[in-house]
Amino acid sequence: MAEAHQAVGFRPSLTSAGGEAELSAPVLQEIYLSGLRSWKRHLSRFWNDFLTGVFPASPLSWLFLFSAIQLAWFLQLDPSLGLMEKIKELLPDWGGQHHRLRGVLAAALFASCLWGALIFTLHIALRLLLSYHGWLLEPHGAMSSPTKTWLALVRIFSGRHPMLFSYQRSLPRQPVPAVQDTVRKYLESVRPVLSDEDFDWTAGLAQEFLKLQASLLQWYLRLKSWWASNYVSDWWEEFVYLRSRNSLMVNSNYYMMDFLYVTPTPVQAARAGNAVHALLLYRHRLNRQEILPTLLMGMRPLCSAQYEKIFNTTRIPGIQKDHIRHLRDSRHVAVFHRGRFFRVGTHSQSSLLSPRALEQQFQRILDDPSPARPHEEHLAALTAAPRDMWAQVRRSLKTQAKDALEAVEGAAFFVSLDSEPAGLTREDPAASLDAYAHALLAGRGHDRWFDKSFTLIVFSNGKLGLSVEHSWADCPISGHMWEFTLATECFRLGYSADGHCKGHPDPSLPQPQRLHWDLPDKIHPSISLALRGAKTLSGNIDCHVFPFSHFGKSFIKRCHLSSDSFIQMALQLAHFRDRGQFCLTYESTMTRLFLEGRTETVRSCTREACNFVRAMEDKEKTDPQCLALFRVAVDKHQALLKAAMSGQGVDRHLFGLYIVSQFLHLQSPFLDQVHSEQWQLATSQIPVQQIHLFDVHNYPDYVSSGGGFGPADDHGYGVSYIFMGDDTITFHISSKKSSTKTDSHRLGQHIEDALLDVAALFQEGQRLKRACRGLGEEDLGHRCGSLPCHARGSRAPTTSATF
């Protein structure tokens, strides 16, 4: 989500002080180390593979094979064609009375070898099958005979009960695209936003690059793709995230929202108790691999590697480069309330604490009248400071306040019990949602520990939210966890009639442990400086959230169009109306079809999209003409999206070539030009991955309202959107208040108008637009039809409705 800002900001050839020679290691050594890290990860998963039966086989399959061999031997048949006899001859002779034991051992050894060969064959077969991407390039709703055959074979070789990491050893590696194709696609993507003179200059740089440098850089990337698990993902994590020296707040983190219209309980401690318990249930299922692997379109497994670092993970600041610290387990959470830090145990001697017991612990913190110590209240602002500054201060903290720091960094996750309410209010629905988004993205600058993999935020009125650090994984991973959390804490765990967690308190539990920070005087100025910087950054962000409820996914499907492409074309129209020009557009999509894949960029501002937008703004163009251009633009976007997902995108390949050029100290004006571009419109769709957990038809209010991120450019926008059920789309828009060119609310109005204008190209959409114009803002409390002016309180679905 927020990766566009990081992608623009990275400068691998510079140190934090601006000096040269940051990347002095020989490129071959770096490729070797990348492969070594990959193999270490493979070895660390060996035990997991053993527990899962070295998928796609199972331990029971070995027992079945051994029993079959023994039965055949009893019937005087030799399925080994004499091999078992040869194995018996190689075994030690223990005497005549052990002759039968030698036969059993020979059968076991033969069964093991045959079993291993079958497993290896199945792995290879499944990897070859998963390398086929023809199904992705077929028209929506159509399936060719080869694809039907492929799907049947995938289901046969996949087994019946795959676990979360079952497919990891069978996923193909991400391919390195042909460099000529990448450069051609790049030039095609920038043509709509460049003048003729600038485009000719860029094309000249591209031709020079292809002639002089491309083949050498490409050779190194191909070498890495053969040796390491993924040719780009580890460099993407390191250079885009871990080497970034900017503040994590706004620039890198993103947020996830609660239910929009309902709050299951107004009791803050109770909501925290159920939410923490639900998160730890998710961790338990994750550790046991009981979470089903994600299947794209219900048939193609995605890489699950990013799930490994959801919990017990902290980004540790360093000079020039951070690193990710992940613990195997943690039995406590760190809690922040009114400037004080606490350690709350999450387990008894035998099991996880009940939601009611956790509520009791959180209530004790809320009732604790002790004040914050000097400078303790603003200590967390250091995690929002530039990374080099925080790394230096942390060295002192590690010496003077080691236990407290370890309690926070070693926690399963961070919990912030806010003293203020948040969420939708009847009095001012628009402003309240904007403030809610701002509180989740930035807070007050000192009430989130931005280094933790995520911070659970619980507001005083029971509203929830997440603030997520971006380096360890991408949004679909945290989104999957968040969907499970909301569904579990609301529907499965539930609340009593008085709003408390179900069950009984446990008076025998010890009080939450207050963390004491021995803060040396020399870091006090750093805390004050970090707080001023965080407040400045927080105060400069302009957030706007609005649900668009005139139509949603169901209407777009009836138009036989891709929902994502429909929204992307509407965003192009809205942005053109807002700024009067086209700009490079960053849309994030996933590459998890491949082992350890992360994301790729879809450059949504295409020539076809620009032709459609110009037609919409041309009063002489008729609706049929505009509709024809719209369909062409949608088809082009779909082609780019599918190419990116199948490893044939532009930006990650160019990024990898750029990194190699920096290792080789090889200057490339073309690559320098590519990575100096600004993304004035960064977009992302938040997928709903577990719709079975929610009853969107009977209880449409009980669906997550998505989340958002900061803008990628000081004069640009960040836009995310989520399809809530079939008839609502929620948009999250951000920009900088310091820019005179942007206004999040203005763009929101343009997005709403653009959606209605695009829908009006279809006959059903014309009726929707007329109906919208018949409504007034006084009817809905926000823009035309986009937000009810009351927080509905429909009864929560029962357990049987969702589980």
From TrEMBL:
<dbReference type="InterPro" id="IPR039551">
    <property type="entry name" value="Cho/carn_acyl_trans"/>
</dbReference>
<feature type="domain" description="Choline/carnitine acyltransferase">
    <location>
        <begin position="175"/>
        <end position="752"/>
    </location>
</feature>
<feature type="transmembrane region" description="Helical">
    <location>
        <begin position="104"/>
        <end position="126"/>
    </location>
</feature>
<keyword id="KW-0808">Transferase</keyword>
<keyword id="KW-0443">Lipid metabolism</keyword>
<feature type="domain" description="Carnitine O-palmitoyltransferase N-terminal">
    <location>
        <begin position="1"/>
        <end position="47"/>
    </location>
</feature>
<dbReference type="InterPro" id="IPR042231">
    <property type="entry name" value="Cho/carn_acyl_trans_2"/>
</dbReference>
<feature type="transmembrane region" description="Helical">
    <location>
        <begin position="50"/>
        <end position="75"/>
    </location>
</feature>
<comment type="similarity">
    <text>Belongs to the carnitine/choline acetyltransferase family.</text>
</comment>
<dbReference type="InterPro" id="IPR023213">
    <property type="entry name" value="CAT-like_dom_sf"/>
</dbReference>
<dbReference type="InterPro" id="IPR032476">
    <property type="entry name" value="CPT_N"/>
</dbReference>
<dbReference type="Pfam" id="PF16484">
    <property type="entry name" value="CPT_N"/>
</dbReference>
<keyword id="KW-0812">Transmembrane</keyword>
<keyword id="KW-0012">Acyltransferase</keyword>
<keyword id="KW-0472">Membrane</keyword>
<protein>
    <submittedName>
        <fullName>Carnitine O-palmitoyltransferase 1, brain isoform</fullName>
    </submittedName>
</protein>
<keyword id="KW-0276">Fatty acid metabolism</keyword>
<dbReference type="Pfam" id="PF00755">
    <property type="entry name" value="Carn_acyltransf"/>
</dbReference>
<keyword id="KW-1133">Transmembrane helix</keyword>
<dbReference type="InterPro" id="IPR000542">
    <property type="entry name" value="Carn_acyl_trans"/>
</dbReference>
